[in-house]
Amino acid sequence: MRSFFFILFISFLFACQEHTTTYTAGKSDVKTHIQQLETAGITPQNYDSLKSVWHQLYQDPTLSSDSVSYAKVTYHLARMYGMRGEDSASFFVKKALDFIEPTQGNLDEKALVYNGMGNILSLQSKAHEAGFYYNQAAAIVLSDSLVDLSAEAKSVMLLSAAQSNNATYQLSLAERMIREAIPICDSLPAGHISHQRVLVQMIQTQRARKQPADSIAPYLRKLEELHRQHPTQYNPAYLYESKVFYFEKTSQTDSLVHYQLLKMQLDEERNNVSAAHPTDVKNLFLDYCNVASTYLLLGNTNLAGTYLLKAAKLKKEHSEMILKHDEIYYQKAVATLCEKTGRKDEAIALLNHTMDLEEDIYQEQNTQAVAEMNALYQLQAKDRSIQTLHENIQINTLQLQQNRLWLIICLLTLGLLALGIFLLYYSQQQRRIRMEKEKVVLQQQLLRTQMEPHFIFNTLSALQSFIRLDQKDRAIKYLNRFSRLLRSSLELSREQLVPLDEEVETLENYLSLQQMRFDQAFTYQVSIPEDQDLTAIMVPPMLVQPFVENAILHGINMETGNGHITIAFTIEAEVLKVTISDSGKKIIPGIKPDHRSLSSTISRERLQLLGKKAKLKSITDAKRGTVIFLNIPIKG
User: Fold this and answer.
1) Which of 66, 78, 214, 562 holds its CA 20 to 30 A away from the CA of 463?
2) pTM (2 d.p.)
């Protein structure tokens, strides 16, 4: 009966969701595709198409580089093959295990693969190895409440581990697993199979632990209520079997045989309806033996013999499906019947045969246990090796992080040092630039101070000439204009930059003063841009005047009285362009001019200090005179 329950539950595990969607392989992202396939239920209609899609993913050459995704694909292939009982399930679940086990984390995937591995080993009758993997899956469920598994999957893993521990007589551990599974099963939807399974397994465990009937009764009442609420969703054979265990404990033989007969009728119906299945045959064989044994307790040898004959007939028809354990149980029942009917020699012979069978079973179990223990030792050694590998990886990771931290500290130190050097260099550069600017300013001021005495000297020379020639009115008028020009010059000399309109006004005062000095020997014209705000344009003071002075003294004929000077101001791209042209001066052949204008030289030096935009250009024509082009950077 237990084997039937186990096979049934494996089928349930492999088909726990029901949908009808059929999938075909597409070109979408592999991980997304896997997630979509995982949500698809397996039905007879879509089984082949789903398996084909999983195989396409399995054959994808890029998948093996992703251990987790590869493990998922191989696990689901194992799941599908397992539903049909095909040997390929073992191959694929082992591949899934090989890929998922060395990874860090991924506990949900590991739990699924461990549980699948336990299923495969159980079908191969390797109880101890199966228990190892079942307990690995259960340990994940118990150790991490946040593991990404559904309540259904958690209940399956805990109950599978409990059933495996029950089979290997680790009964306390089995009971613990079942108790942990009870609240999880309670959270599942009404009618779910786990509601029955957890109660049946608890009753079986309490019976195996030889607990009194009182320990079975609460769970039996819950099982009865479950079947009452859902009479068509649960197999009543489990309820009848549980009642058999209870009445066996309470020695209520009549009730015991009643539920044994009910269970036997269900198993007979199952065996008659469908083709012979090893589990169904085994369950019916044990039913006959159990009923016979109960009738022997009641002293009814006729009915006992009837059911033993049925067991013998079933054994003859399906001898390959009857296990040695069940054969022993049958032989003991027949021996008891022989004893009660006076055939003691036959009874002794049968008991001797059962002893031989028990010895054979013991030898087989012992051999298998040794082999499984050796396999378990290798598994544990593998686990230790993986654990050591993980610890080494963690140590290497920590060392790498430490090295990375030191590298970052060194880089930060070097960066800060480089930043400090840069800031120091930048500070020195800024200081040098400031000093150069201050030097330029001082040079400008020095040159202006050199120009002002020169201008005053020339003006006083003209005034002296008026006084010497006894031209008092002209001297007074000249002195008056000179005072205004001098006051303006003094005001401008305090500033590094002055508005253009003030500079033009000072220049016109100077030209007017020079006209008086040379007795109206020339005329002049000053043109300024009408569309510009001259008050907002700042230029160095007294920069144009020396070139105008040079044009007056050396660019016109004073004797003729028809000299002319033109001064034009234009503004282009933050540059003040000044054009100074004179009417020209007749040059006497053989005489080379020896005058060198100090003020013009000073102004050239001042221009050089104004930067790259400042330019000076001179064009001389013997007939038309000289034209001076000045480019002066301005600030607005």
Assistant:
1) 562
2) 0.57
Q: Which residues pair with 628 in a beta bridge?
A: 580, 618
**Rama region for 218: left / alpha / beta (φ>0; ψ in -120 to 50; rest):** alpha
Closest among 286, 271, 281, 278 to 330, alpha carbons compared? 286
Dihedral (Cα; 497, 498, 504, 509), 10-degree rounding: -110
Residue 308 reports pLDDT greater than 70? yes
Question: What pLDDT digit, counting tens, does each position of 209-249 carry?
Answer: 999 999 999 999 999 999 999 988 898 999 999 999 999 88
DSSP structure string for 140-154: HHHH-TTSS--HHHH
**Could you report the per-residue pLDDT of 341-358, keeping only the tens digit for each?**
888 888 888 888 888 888
Q: Are 224 and 239 in contact (CB under 8 A)?
A: yes
Query: Which residues, 6 or more positions from 445, have their beta carbon under 8 angstroms from its beta carbon?
Result: 496
User: Rounded to the nearest 10 degrees, how much is the dihedral formed by the CA atoms of 294, 300, 306, 310?
Assistant: 10
Contact 233, 196 (CB under 8 A): no
Cβ neighbourhood burial of 470 (10 Å; 0-12, 13-18, 19+)? exposed
As a whole number of angstroms, the distance between CA 171 and CA 168 comes to: 8
In angstroms and rounded to an integer, the radius of gyration of the C-alpha atoms of the chain is: 57
The two structure tokens encoding residue 628: 């001076």
Task: Determine phi and psi for 355, rounding to 5 degrees.
Answer: -65, -40
State how far Cα 49 lies from the chain centre.
34
Sheet holding 522-527, edge to edge: 522-527, 563-572, 575-582, 625-633, 615-621
